Amino acid sequence: MKYRKPKRFDNNLIVIGAGSAGLIASLIAATVRAKVTLIERARMGGDCLNTGCVPSKTLIRSAKVAHYLKTSQRYGLRDVAGTVDFGAVMQRVRDAIATIAPNDSVERYTSLGVECVAGNARIVDPWTVEVDGKRMTARNIVIATGAAPFVPPIPGVDRVDALTSDDVWNLTELPRRFVVMGAGPIGCELAQSFQRLGSQVTLIDMADRVLPKEDADVSALVADVLRGEGVDVLVGHKAVRFESDTEKRLVAEVNGRTIAIPFDRVLVAVGRRAHTKSLGLEELGIGLNRDGTVVVDEYMRTSVRNILACGDVAGPYQFTHMASHQAWYASVNALFGRFRKFKANYSVVPWATYTDPEVARVGLSVEEATAKGVAFEVTRHELAHVDRAIAEGETRGFIKVLTQRGSDRILGATIVAPQAGELIAEYVLAITHGLGLKKLMSTIHIYPTSAEINKFVANDWRRNHAPTGLLKFAQRYHALWR
After folding, report:
1. CATH class assigned to 357-464
2. What pTM does this model have?
3. Which of 268, 315, 288, 297 is nearest to 147 (CA)?
4. Which CATH architecture has domain 11-149+273-336?
5. pLDDT digits (tens, 9 = 90+) for 402-415
């Protein structure tokens, strides 16, 4: 279908969706003095602020404090009293959101030069967006509509009032028996947190281990920690149906037999699907990938070249920091692509899962490197050998670094430790700028800190690659001078 291109445009850029990707894209446009309109149908800040990163990390912190109180005897503290006030915990979550919300507000973005419009957007042609009956035009359009939790069509799911990561924050009472479906990052984080707050949690997944995208030793440690804290971890279990008569039950299948798991509330955390409905993409011939994300090229462009997409709606990574990363490419290519185009760079993508201990990774895992046929070596150092970890009583975890065989070039790093998401930053920097383990080894690290583990693993690598011939010569040299 042919469309008539306007001779003039209302905007240089229209951005649909005010989550992390949309906020950054519109901010970049306003910063370079482009006329930009940002459209949001729900709440400014998107999932990260309202239902994702901010509320979950706030809850995780309260749960960790509750865990410290329960295990205070490990620290030599006796008769420490602590009662979880779940209503107060959830109020703290709301307070954290409210404190951060002004940073993402209509008022702030308006003051920065972004026109903010509330409503449901639909793209009617390559340059025109309709919002609740009103039309506006732009030379370029950026789709940043994010994603939403996916609830699989399991029989009976519509009768058990299932929660997702979108609405679990509306709970006013702590569930006594809480089933969490999905042992990925969201499921593991919330399973551990609710268990620590006082629920009896069952974590169930059809995969054969928790955190299946991580190496098996990482998954095993996290599962062991969860079980040690009382979570009933059921991997290799396929959900068959929900039942609700005198009580609610999840019926699951494992090894050819079925089991029934009674519960009071259930959280479905089995994945997220891109928000693309009602945008008019099909009419424009804009394709979707098998996982529902919008098909984009390396410049973040769709098949309609002046319509771009970024963030969760585009994939392949559903991380806030990657949404912001992609937003730069989408907005700059939209505004200045006629002069120069920039290919989105996914060569160094870090992420973290905020269980306790945390899991953070950048670059290749052992399983990924093996699958790709990469020649590599692994150097590992246990957290139990770090003085700060011993002092704090937090010794479960490790770091392992993959290097190119025969070289100190870093291919990937995985850290399992408290604050692993902070510790991984040194490896993100190193891989990004081509710094090898020798450079990390020669860098001073403060004692005693958890970050010393990064230097220790570099020292381990150096010992494993010691120049034996030179050392034998040095031994003979010193013997002559004794």
Report:
1. alpha beta
2. 0.94
3. 315
4. 3-Layer(bba) Sandwich (3.50)
5. 999 999 999 999 99
